[in-house]
Specification:
heterodimer, A: alpha/beta, Udp-n-acetylmuramoylalanyl-d-glutamate--2,6- Diaminopimelate Ligase, Chain: A, domain 1, five-stranded mixed β-sheet, 5 strands, about 15% strand, globular, B: about 150 residues, alpha+beta, Heat Shock Protein 90, 6 helices, binds adenosine-5'-triphosphate, binds magnesium ion
């Protein structure tokens, strides 16, 4: 599944990475405790989290997570956006809850 | 240049880690990851070293007063070393338990404090040693074999 396909199913605002939407995502993970994400996060996957500070970009880079979805329209810190641009990470902001987002992606056939 | 040529000699890099700097946090691990990729190291090994480096770096930022990280790359193995100057860990066995954490509320709000960092490092590495003395500091060493 490509990030483009996700954008079509999850109501969202594209915050960063509009040139990266053809990237393939192979799995997803949902979590806000960073070392749990470090232990379980999928490679080339997407990550749903309510954390918005710049360290989430470090986690994404290290795990090769290509897309981060921030639920519930939580405001995203400016230096997080800057760093995501620099590192080539897509950030989507969505009004839906993490539960709702994960549910829809699962419904599209996406696995953990 | 083949991977073998590049890997013939060993290589050392050193990073200084600042306590409490959450904005810079993760940079050393990120640089280590880029270096290993440039050297053509196996992607699975790169991932394991990256996770360990990140967890050790974050622990120094959150729990220590600062220190240094060293990465040594040999043809057979990658050795990761972290050393800080305090405050040290009183009970290492307890610190190694999954779920044990003394992270502050501030660090927890940022998503730290699951108490999984040290267990993650141990799981990711082929060899792991941690030594600590209260008032002196903590030293950690993790080794990752490079299969050829
Ligand atoms: N470099 C260090 N200096 C002092 N204490 C440390 C250091 N590293 C770890 N500790 C102690 O060991 C505990 C467990 O560390 P661990 O990395 O497993 O969990 P954490 O850092 O608390 O949470 P997480 O890593 O899941 O975000 C810490 O809460 C802290 O008390
Ligand atoms: Mg930790």
């Amino acid at each position: 599944m490509r990030i483009n396909d996700i954008i079509n199913v999850i109501p969202n605002t594209l915050v960063t990475g509009k040139e990266l939407l053809q990237k393939e995502v192979r799995g997803g993970y949902c979590g806000d405790l960073l070392s749990r994400v470090m232990a379980k996060g999928p490679k080339d996957g997407l990550w749903i989290t309510v954390q918005t500070h710049v360290n989430i970009i470090a986690v994404a880079v290290l795990l090769e997570i290509s897309c981060i979805i921030i639920p519930e329209d939580i405001p995203i810190e400016p230096n997080t956006i800057e760093k995501a641009d620099e590192e080539g990470i897509v950030i989507l902001s969505s009004p839906l809850s993490a539960f709702e987002i994960a549910g829809r992606l699962h419904g599209m056939g996406m696995d953990g | 240049m083949t991977r073998k040529d590049r890997m013939n000699s060993s290589m050392i890099q050193v990073y200084e880690i600042e306590s409490g700097n959450f904005t810079k946090a993760g940079e050393a691990a990120g640089n280590i990851k880029k270096l290993l990729r440039q050297l053509g190291i196996d992607a699975g090994v790169v991932r394991r070293v990256s996770i360990a480096a990140y967890e050790a770096e974050m622990n120094m930022v959150i729990h220590s007063i600062g220190g240094i990280i060293k990465i040594l790359i040999d043809p057979e193995a990658i050795t990761f070393k972290a050393r800080d100057t305090g405050p040290g860990i009183e009970d290492i066995e307890l610190a190694m338990k999954e779920g044990y954490s003394t992270a502050t509320d501030f660090a927890r709000e940022l998503g730290f404090g699951a108490g999984m960092g040290l267990p993650n490092i141990k799981k990711c590495s082929d060899d792991f040693i941690i030594k600590s003395e209260v008032g002196v500091g903590t030293r950690l060493e993790a080794r990752f074999n490079i299969s050829t």
